[in-house]
Amino acid sequence: MAYDNALTALADPTRRRVFEELRSGPKPVGAIASVLPVSRPAVSQHLKVLRGAGLVREETQGTRHVFSIDPKGLGAIRRWLDQFWDEALTAFAAEVERDAQKGEDEREKS
Amino acid sequence: MTAQHITPAPVRKSVVVNANAARAFDLFANNISRWWPPSHSMLKVPLKETIIQPFAKGRWYQVGEDGSECDNGHVLAWEPPHRLLLAWQLNSDWQLDPGLITEVEIKFIADGERRTRVELEHRHLERMGAKGETTRNAIAGPNGWSAILETFRQSVEQGSR
Known about the structure:
The complex is a heterodimer.
Chain A: H1 2-10, H2 13-21, E1 27-28, H3 29-35, H4 40-52, E2 56-61, E3 64-69, H5 75-109
Antiparallel strand pairs in A: 1-3, 2-3
Helix pairs in contact in A: 2-4, 3-4
Chain B: E1 11-17, H1 21-30, E2 47-52, E3 59-64, E4 69-79, E5 83-88, E6 102-110, E7 116-123, H2 126-130, H3 144-159
Antiparallel strand pairs in B: 1-7, 2-3, 3-4, 4-5, 5-6, 6-7
């Protein structure tokens, strides 16, 4: 499942730093390595894992390889919240109905 | 060179309820305990109540039957009867992370005299993914949220072996 992979991939603090570096926009390996205390090959390795988990995608721009966050990688978290809010709002609407019904019953009594 | 933020789309939901905006806001925010699914709590004991303090910077938290508390986030804007903006501060590990703010905006839009369309948007979800970590903490509860999360936790542990 994509969600498991994503969480596992982000469990490593350095890998999370690599991922966070991409939040400001697509970057080549060198640009990421220059701001982190890890070697360029290590950054490449982390990017490979992130790509495998579907969190990061790779594009070729001329001779450069540029990495960016793959929005679909967070899809599992999003799907979960989507389902969660569906359930919560359904419960809320049911409570409004109960409340309205209670109001009507009270009016009928008086 | 494309320098842009790439983010997952916000979660958007809406529901139409038979109440005016003021009543809908009151039930949603002041009486959240009456409808919040009881399985959706990170407490290790059964949920007693869910509370949103009615002012900006107020706490949004849950209280267990034994009095223990657990924060979900806080109020960013309290604007009855039309708008409520909450900070959801549970990370993708479903633990409170004070450094994380994802926004849940709820709008109450009049749809006739006694009907209100409630629109909910949960946004900045990308902040959650970047903060994700595996958890060693036990997640209590026999069903619902807790059970789902327990399954996630186990899969993550298996995956990292």
